């Protein structure tokens, strides 16, 4: 059974930091590139970051550049999203997703597997 288990979400104050994890199982993790997406209430799911199979290349949405860092440990079948300088606009459910194909990384329907997401709330 394929699983992507995102964890690490929670309540954080504005300006704070949080690191999300995504533990994969049931497929060959290092054959897949990974994306992080988020979805706020009433909004569409949007791409946050992307990391290639071996972790050599990353991409970020403009809002994430300079604040978020995507990484992965293929030996642990785990991806990470380090987030800093968080603000209220970052409040959302964050999802990790895996895909085998290439292409524009932020397109939701190019991903093969999705996790259930983890909720991040930025509030004082």
Low-confidence stretches: none
How many DSSP H or I helices? 0
Helical content class: under 10%
- What structural class do you assign from the helix and strand content? mainly beta
Integer average pLDDT = 97
Major sheet attributes? 7 strands, mixed
What is the C-alpha radius of gyration, as a whole number of Å? Answer: 13 Å
Protein model, in words:
The chain has 124 residues and is an all-beta fold. The chain is built from no helices and 11 strands. It has strands at 3-7, 10-12, 18-25, 33-39, 46-51, 58-60, 68-73, 78-83, 92-99, 113-114, 118-122. The strands form 2 sheets. Strands 2, 4, 5, 6, 9, 10 and 11 form a 7-stranded mixed beta sheet that branches. The protein has a 4-stranded antiparallel beta sheet with strand order 1-3-8-7, with no helix packed on it. The radius of gyration is 13 Å and the shape is globular.
Write the layout of secondary structure elements.
Elements: E1 3-7, E2 10-12, E3 18-25, E4 33-39, E5 46-51, E6 58-60, E7 68-73, E8 78-83, E9 92-99, E10 113-114, E11 118-122
Parallel strand pairs: 2-11
Antiparallel strand pairs: 1-3, 3-8, 4-5, 4-9, 5-6, 7-8, 9-10, 9-11
């Amino acid at each position: 059974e394929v699983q992507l288990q995102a964890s690490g979400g929670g309540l954080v104050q504005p300006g704070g930091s949080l690191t999300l994890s995504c533990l994969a199982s049931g497929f060959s993790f290092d054959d897949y590139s990974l994306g992080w997406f988020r979805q706020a209430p009433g909004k569409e799911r949007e791409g946050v970051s992307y990391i290639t199979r071996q972790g050599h290349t990353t991409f970020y949405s403009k809002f994430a550049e300079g604040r978020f860092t995507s990484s992965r440990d293929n030996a642990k079948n785990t991806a990470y999203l380090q987030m800093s300088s968080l603000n209220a606009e970052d409040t959302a459910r964050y999802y990790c997703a895996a895909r085998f194909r290439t292409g524009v990384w932020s397109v939701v329907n190019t991903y093969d597997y999705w996790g259930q997401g983890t909720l991040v709330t930025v509030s004082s």
